[in-house]
Amino acid sequence: MSAKITRRQALTIGAVGAGVVAVGAAATMISRAVLDEPSIGEVDGAPVPESPSAEGLPGWSEPEVLTSRDGVLELDLRVAAAEVVVGGATVQMLAYNGTVPGPTLHLRAGDTLRVHLRNELGVPTNLHTHGLHVSGEGNSDNPLLDIAPGESFDYEIVLPDDHPAGVNWYHPHRHGMVADQIFAGLYGAIIVDDEDWEAAAPRVVVVSDTTIIDGRVAEVSRPQRMAGRTGEMLLTNGQPAPALRGAAGSEQRLLLINACASRYLDLGFAGLAAQLRGVDSLRLAAPEAVERRVLAPGNRVDVIVRVPDAETPVVAAPYDRGQAGMGMGGQSTAAPEAVVLRLVPDSASAAPGVADAAGSTWQDLREREPDGARTLTLSMGMGGGMGGGMRFLIDGREFAHHRIDQEVRLGTMEEWTIVNDSMMAHPFHLHIWPMQVVRVAEQAVSGIDVRDVIDVPPFSSVTVRLAFERFPGRTVYHCHILDHEDLGMMGVLRAS
Ligand code: C2O
Ligand code: CU
Ligand code: CU
């Protein structure tokens, strides 16, 4: 049986995410709402959707894993509209190779990644490998390319031999269309490690959000873009609140990516004896106990959880990113509570076991004297373009493709203070070089905290240190509320 999802059902499915306590009870109702709704019609030629699990909510599924061989991973990546099944209903999204998320790319340090990208959208796109420490020039991880509709492009991305193990991801980066394309389903995981996944398979957990109306991804208004859109449905590997089963007491290793266009995930791990092993593209020297962790859009965590004796959801708590500005029509930046996944004890499941892993070697940049210091100011100004409203600026300017905003010298280490002079939070992201956070709101940070997306709260600042090593050429930094990036909150850096 095929089903189109209606707006009302989308809301119902979205509400599953909100029902923390009543997940089990609500589940039966939802499956009926999705499957027995009289208004559901047949979609010609659509594939038969998978039947929901016993509870009526989706079971666990993960994207296909493509692993490099002899130092190379080569793949065709088709970017096109596709019919996919979400929560038991067939909907139209955008997909890499027909699935949401796209395939997981499993790489090792020193590998070469060759991607033959074919753009079958009606609009331009391109490809960014978020978190990889690789060149941003030419046909490597170049965010300034434009792959026109109907065109193909061959990427070749070479990971250095000492590339750190960590959780990364890929997504489009064509300025002006990034949030729309991600919201519609274009994202996938890139995991760099030297582990044998046959023995101890980690769980790839790609979290995204979207809004489906009448079987299609909803358009968003200009005020929603200015606030940073929040989808009505939270999806984990493309499904709402899927059940991850494991033997009670066994450990599951989650490689979790916040692929939402603009939503922060305030993740709670209470009752799961969670151990944080890594953040973004790096591993911690030793795992740390973690009960709660906020992931800005673009952030990742590598975390081990223990399957409890009773079904327990991993929940994203309600999160408010601050005030939306004037001209945003009262648009809220708040995201409601939502279930990311449910851990379900199941004695029939095998316990995979989690292998030990070495931490990344990161030289503490506080031990070095910076070669320079800069301040970058994130702000919002009045008078944004045709529809009016706010402008999204870095150092008072909107993104310009051919302007160089920061010139840095390779081999130097700099201290950057990112100032947020607005009433909304902005997660600051720099491509290629991870940032070590040294001060938050003028308070020194203890310990080594390295990330590639860093939340900068309203009217506050964060100071980071950056070692510009190898990789000459241009790349970008921007707000990872991708609606803000599309509206201009991005700059170009050139290293030489
Ligand atoms: Cu996740 Cu410039 O990107
Ligand atoms: Cu990036
Ligand atoms: Cu922003």
Topology, element by element:
Blueprint: H1 7-18, H2 23-35, E1 65-67, E2 72-86, E3 89-96, E4 104-107, E5 112-119, E6 128-130, E7 152-158, E8 166-171, H3 178-183, E9 188-192, E10 203-210, E11 212-213, E12 216-217, H4 222-227, E13 233-236, E14 243-246, E15 251-258, E16 265-268, E17 275-279, E18 282-289, E19 292-295, E20 300-306, E21 312-317, E22 338-345, E23 372-382, E24 390-394, E25 406-408, E26 413-420, E27 426-430, E28 435-440, E29 443-444, E30 450-451, E31 453-456, E32 460-467, E33 473-479, H5 482-486, E34 490-495
Parallel strand pairs: 1-4, 2-5, 4-9, 10-15, 14-22, 23-26, 25-34
Antiparallel strand pairs: 2-3, 5-7, 6-8, 8-9, 10-13, 11-12, 15-20, 16-19, 16-21, 17-18, 17-20, 21-22, 23-24, 26-32, 27-31, 27-33, 28-29, 28-30, 28-32, 33-34
This protein binds CU-O-CU linkage and copper (II) ion (2 copies).
One copper (II) ion binds next to strand 6.
Can you walk me through this structure?
The protein has helices at 7-18, 23-35, 178-183, 222-227, 482-486; strands spanning 65-67, 72-86, 89-96, 104-107, 112-119, 128-130, 152-158, 166-171, 188-192, 203-210, 212-213, 216-217, 233-236, 243-246, 251-258, 265-268, 275-279, 282-289, 292-295, 300-306, 312-317, 338-345, 372-382, 390-394, 406-408, 413-420, 426-430, 435-440, 443-444, 450-451, 453-456, 460-467, 473-479, 490-495. The chain is mostly beta strands and 496 residues long. Strand 2 (72-86) and strand 3 (89-96) form a beta hairpin. Helix 1 (7-18) packs antiparallel against helix 2 (23-35). The N and C termini lie far apart (58 Å). Mean pLDDT is 87; it is low at 1-54. CU-O-CU linkage binds at residues 128, 130, 143, 171, 173, 298, 429, 431, 476, 478, 480.
